[in-house]
Each structure stands twice: as C-alpha cells, then as structure tokens.
TrEMBL record:
Membrane topology: Multi-pass membrane protein
All copies of domain FAD-binding FR-type, residue ranges: 361-474
Keywords: Cell membrane, Electron transport, FAD, Flavoprotein, Glycoprotein, Heme, Ion channel, Ion transport, Iron, Isopeptide bond, Membrane, Metal-binding, NADP, Oxidoreductase, Phosphoprotein, Transmembrane, Transmembrane helix, Transport, Ubl conjugation, Voltage-gated channel
Listed InterPro entries: Cyt_b245_heavy_chain, FAD-bd_8, FAD-bd_FR_type, Fe3_Rdtase_TM_dom, Fe_red_NAD-bd_6, FNR_nucleotide-bd, RBOH/FRE, Riboflavin_synthase-like_b-brl
One Gene Ontology term, aspect cellular component: monoatomic ion channel complex
Function, in words: Catalytic subunit of the phagocyte NADPH oxidase complex that mediates the transfer of electrons from cytosolic NADPH to O2 to produce the superoxide anion (O2(-)). In the activated complex, electrons are first transferred from NADPH to flavin adenine dinucleotide (FAD) and subsequently transferred via two heme molecules to molecular oxygen, producing superoxide through an outer-sphere reaction.
Localization terms from the record: Cell membrane
Name of the molecule in the record: NADPH oxidase 2
Organism: Neogobius melanostomus (round goby)
Transmembrane segments: 7-36, 42-72, 84-109, 129-153, 174-192, 244-268, 280-300
Amino acid sequence: MCIILLCVLYYICVLYYICVLYYTCVLYYICVLYYIHVYYIILYYTCVLYYTCVLYYTCVLYYILYYIILYYTCVFLRRVNNEVCALVFSWCGWGINAFLFVHFYMAFLTPRWFYTRVLLGHALSWARAPAACLNFNCMLILLPVCRNLLSFLRGSIQPDRGSTAGPDITFHKLVAYMIAFHTAVHIVAHLFNFEYFMNAQLDRNETLLPFVLSEIGTNDNASYLNPIRTNETNNNPETLLGTIVMFTTVAGLTGVAITLALILIITSSTEVIRRSYFEVFWFTHHLFVIFFIGLVFHGFERIVRGQTLENLKVHDPENCSEHFEDWGRNGSDCPEPKFAGNPPMTWKWVVGPMFLYVCERLVRYYRSHQKVVITKVVMHPSRTLELQMKKKGFKMEVGQYVFIQCPSVSRLEWHPFTLTSAPEEDHFSAHIRIVGDWTEALYTACGGDQPEQQQAWTLPKIAIDGPFGTASEDAFQYEVVMLVGAGIGVTPFASLLKSVWYKRIQNHQDTFTKKIYFYWLCPETQAFEWFADLLQTLEKQMNEQNMSDFLSYNIYLTRWKDQEAAHFRVHHEAENDPITGLKQKTLYGKPNWDNEFTTIAASHPKTKVGVFLCGPPVLGKALAKQCRSHTEADVKFIFNKENF
C-alpha cells in the first residue's frame, strides 16, 4: 500500500509538472506575440522558477521512490534467491547510470553549447555526462552505510523478524565502482578540455573563431567563455599555466582534493588491507568528508559555460558563427554572444543523504554512551577472546553482528564482530581472534596476558552499535539447510545452531527446519578448539534426545603436516576424534561438492534447500554453481552469501 501511494503521488507530481510547463509556455508566447505588460513578463519568470522547483522535487521524489521500490522488491526476492537481489540492484543501477550518461551527453549537443563545443569539441559532453552520473551515485553511496536507518526501516517492515539482511555491502561496492569509473572519465575529459582552452588562448590569430571566443570578456566581464584569461597566458610560461589554473580556481583545488581522497579510499579498501590492516581501511574511509565537501563546492565557480538563453534569442550560433568578425557592429544581426555557467547542482543531490548520515552518526554517538556490562570473559585456546555482555533493551537474532568500540583502546575505531550467542540466552557474546593491534590491545585490557582472573570493575568499558542483520537469519525459512563456514566464518552458524537447539528442546517449539547439514572448512587444527565445546554439547544433547539425525556435521582439515596425518591415522579407530573430541571424525582435504549436493537432493525430494555460506568469494562461486546445476523441478537449492 505504501508503494502504491508513493507511485500515485509521484505521477500526480509529474502531471502537475507537465501542466505547469504547458501553461508557462502558453504565457510566454502570449507575452512575446502581443507585447504584454512587464508585469506579465515577471509572472512568466515566476512560473519558470516555480516549474524548476516542481521539477527538482519531482526528481527527488522519484529517486526516493526508486530506492524504496528496490528495497521492497529485494525483500520479496530474497525469499527466492539472495543473489537475485544483488542482480536487481546492479542492473537498475547500471540502467539509470546509462540513461543519465546518454541524456546529459545529448543535452550538451544543443545550440546553447555550440560555441563551447567550438573550443572543446565532444570532450565537453564527455566531461558533463559522467558528472551527472557522479551526482546520482554520490547520492546513493551514503545510504547503504546508514546502518541504523536501514535496520529501523527493515524492522518496521517486518517486525516479526527484526532486522533482515540486505545487499547493502554489494550495493555500496557497486556504487563505489561507478563513482571511480565516472571520475576517471570526467578527469580525462577535462584534461583534454584544459588543453583545448589553453591552445585557443595561445594561438593568437584573430581570424580563428576559437581565439575570438577566448577574447570575449577580457575586462573582468562575467560573460567570458574561456576560463584561461589573456593576462595569464601572457605573464606565465606554458609549463606553469596548468599549475596556476589548478591551484587558483575553486574547481581546480576541489578537483585535486576529491581525486586524492578518492584514490586513498579506493586503494585502502582492497581485500588485503581491509583484512590485515583494518585501522588503515577505517581511518582512510573517513576521507569521505573531504570528498563530499569538495564535491559540493566543485561547481560553484561555473567554469564550464554556455550561451545565455536571453542571448540565444537574438544570436543564433549556427548562423552567426559564419560572420564572427561582424559581431557587435552597427547593422549586424549578430550581437556579441554572452555566456554564463549553470548553477551548481551537486549539493541538491547529496544534501539529503548527508543529512541522513549526520543523523546516523548522532545515533551511533548516543549508542556509544549506553551502558554495556561485561558479565564474563573467556580466554579460549589459540588466542581467541570471548566476551559475554549485557545491555538494556538489546535484542538480537541469529547470525547478526555488532560494532564494538573500546574507548580505552581507541575512541575512534569501531570493529565488526559476529554474535555467537543465541537469542534465547540471557546475554550476547562475541568471539574475537587476536590478529591485529586493536584486538591485541583489547586482549590485554581484558586481562588476557594475566594468569589470574580479572575482577569485574577492572574490565574496560565497551560500547556496542547494533545488532545488524545477515543472511543466516533466513535459515529458519527452509526445511533443509546447508551451512558452510570457512575458517572463522563459522561464527554466525554458532548462534544459529544454539538457537535451533533451544527452540526444539528447551522451549519445545516445533521449528520448520527439520534437517541441518553443517560443513566447516579450516586450514589448521588450532582453529577447531574454541568451537569444539559447542559441538560436543550439541552432540551429547542430541544423543540424549534420540535426535542424532537432526544435525549432520562434517569438519574438513584443508591443510596438515605429514606427522599430523600419521598421528591421526593411528587414532582413526578411536571412539572420539583426536582433534575435536567428537564422535564424527575429522575429514581431510576439501569436500566433493558435487557428491554432497547429489546426496542431499536424493535424500530430500520436493524440498527447497537453503545453502548458507560465510567464506571466501572463490568458495561462494563454487557453491552458487552447484546450486544452479542441482536445482531441478522437485528440489531447489537457494544460495545465500554472507559478507564476512
């Protein structure tokens, strides 16, 4: 119903805009043909201004409607395939970018920009078209990172399920790729434009139209066309001219700042840096503040100019360009052309998302001051820290994650961690591997390097932002579930396995999920230690309840030494596995996914099987391929990928 009302409102605005445009044109022609009083001329321009405002807010409403419709579409499509959501966002984003590019490319081929094209050629359109796309993408880039806003919207749409997962990270990356691409095109085109501007001014030949156009407005006249003035070319060598223009104009300074900020943000967002040096990724990403400030002021100087609409009525560029030597002379039908730049538009595109992001940061600041109590600290083997915490009003779902800040370590850093507790427990917990400077400092602050147990009042203060949803929440929608975790990617499934067990045993709830296939791929034996206790507890309880068939788990050791392999062969006949202590033996190598999917498909005909992965992209591609190849009329495999 909300979408229908928004659609009706949007089309009413469009119809209203068309009516305003029609009657404005009628009023204009009446004024021209019958020389109506000046007050009617003022009324005409008032209508033009009114029409412009209506057009602007109609466009704003359109883009809001576009984002809401995409979100509602994905809420529906996620029940079919989580990958389809990303494809919908991707294709819609590409389509709108293509439309904007073509539309604005053609817009700068109109007569108003005739003389600008004399100087710049098609490089003008190649610069302005990606600029329009940049406005659109910069409007969208902040929306996916407004975590609390999206969580609130999703919770209000589906209050029974809480905060559900969406393709936020995928969408954010897609928009970032488009910004990088259009920025590159925009920069290259303006480099050509600068060369053309400079050549037109340096080639001082009064018989050439480009030079004549460049000489217009030499006496500080605001109607100039060429931003490189005569005194700059006369007083400075050609080699210094580029530096002067770059660092003495608003467009040049902001352009350099925007480009440097964007390069640093992109290069620090690579997988290697984000995984190994999260602090670099986190702090460098905050250069977006410089990026958006520079973006807002980039067009304020109006360097790229076209013929004014008033001058265009008395000066036809296609005819008058043939007689440019007679411009402004007595008896000439061609007065000197007047030029002006378009008013800056970028701020209109980004002011809304910037306001939403400021509200988002205020919410995070408020949450950072809410009290969080650390009820228990567990030091697991292999330097894994478990924090059990409580917070007033905190509600979570399986597989969700939170951002954790420790002010005594760093007041600026927030790090994401998957919750490993179940919603049915009286606390929430996170397992933190000690792999970097921040986690090492947190480990020390919690007394990880001390032999004795720390008192509660000596533990550091913790701030929590979240929880936020992930794809694993949807596991309860499927009767049969495949959970695939690679390495530390097993953490969201710890919460899910606990919750399923609580629902079936302790709370005596008849869950829709009847069978779980759990796969854990890990490179070394030490990584199993912290998770083994949970699996042993589940295994014991399932045997006591005669439900050993409910959970089928397979643990794969993908890397091992020869001595370890020999030791495991000796103990292969033991009742429990020598690594995990479980009855189910650890397997070596990698799963034969084709055999696994074939077996599951044969065991569960006429069933939708939910496949959930938390692991590397390579494994995700392999599982997605298996889902497509084994999906048939009577059994369907639905692939869900969590960004971890």
